[in-house]
Design brief:
Blueprint (H helix, E strand, L loop, with lengths): L2 H6 L3 H26 L4 H20 L3 H22 L4 H22 L8 H5 L7 H20 L1 H9 L1 H7 L2 H22 L6 H12 L5 H26 L3 H28 L1
Helix pairs in contact: 2-7, 2-10, 2-11, 2-12, 3-4, 3-5, 3-10, 3-11, 4-5, 4-10, 7-10, 8-9, 8-10, 11-12, 11-13, 12-13
Length: 275
């Protein structure tokens, strides 16, 4: 049964897909802990919609979707924070404003253009064969940037996660907020090539929520989320090869299965202890 998987792994683009998937899994899991606990997990979904617009515009202009999306989505993440800070529009409402406008813009651009000659489904739901050597290099750089940024600015990021009001007078909270927004946007941009615009936010939400069923400490949750995210990517990609299913959807289903197992384990453990 594993023969198709072993044969597929002889091809460089499948090997590249697994490496990129693992790197994105690490980045998204690390950032997911801060976003989920701040109740900002939907920012991933919002920025994914923005990336859809950036991809559409890039394809129409004949530019690289990846390189075009980096400044486009990063600016959108900064705009969401600006709206949140400078107006009385907060949290998910600010995300909704920017993401819905971007999604509509992307749809209009695609339907108005006759020059797009690639399948937009590759960007909506991900495609293994669309990953390139550039994706691999940028994924390595991104993972290093995310990990070292979190290590170096751990206390400010931790502070704004648990008590932003207190953090404003003790740490550079505004810088930490913008740093988190930009790192998240970069992770989203790279992730859409693997898992797609419509599903990328699951890589941010699922591993952390699953880890929270099993651990209590913040650092323990980060480590557990990384392991869970990597396991979901490996098992999801493997299943997509074996059963010829969408890689993005398979990764999400793997994440869902791991969450169900973790939740069942927590309920069983709690009931067993109470009994």
């Amino acid at each position: 049964m594993l023969e198709p998987l072993m044969e597929s792994l002889q091809y460089s683009f499948f090997q590249r897909a697994f490496i990129i998937g693992i790197l994105i899994a690490i980045s998204s899991a690390v950032l997911g802990n801060f976003l989920v606990l701040r109740k900002y997990s939907l920012v991933g979904d919002g920025l994914a919609h923005v990336s859809f617009a950036s991809v559409a515009i890039a394809l129409v202009l004949g530019q690289s979707p990846l390189l075009f999306s980096i400044p486009f989505v990063s600016l959108a993440s900064v705009l969401i924070l600006y709206i949140n800070e400078k107006t009385n529009i907060y949290g998910d409402a600010a995300i909704g404003l920017v993401s819905s406008f971007a999604l509509a813009l992307g749809y209009v651009v695609i339907n108005s253009s006759k020059s797009i000659n690639v399948s937009i489904n590759n960007y909506l739901f991900g495609s293994i064969i669309t990953t390139s050597q550039l994706d691999l290099i940028l994924s390595i750089l991104l993972t290093l940037i995310v990990v070292f940024s979190v290590l170096f600015y751990y206390y400010p990021l931790f502070s704004i996660t648990y008590d932003e009001e207190f953090a404003r007078v003790t740490v550079p909270s505004r810088f930490a907020n913008y740093l988190m927004a930009i790192l998240t946007s970069l992770t989203i941009i790279l992730g859409i090539r693997m898992i797609g615009v419509m599903l990328i936010s699951s890589l941010i939400i699922f591993p952390t929520v699953t880890a929270l069923q099993l651990t209590k400490g913040f650092k323990q949750t980060i480590v557990s989320a990384i392991l869970i995210s990597v396991l979901a990517v490996i098992s999801g990609l493997s299943a997509s090869i074996l059963f010829n299913t969408s890689p993005g959807a398979s990764i999400v289903l793997a994440n869902g299965a791991l969450f169900a197992l973790a939740y069942a384990f927590r309920q069983f453990k709690g009931g067993h202890l109470n009994g």
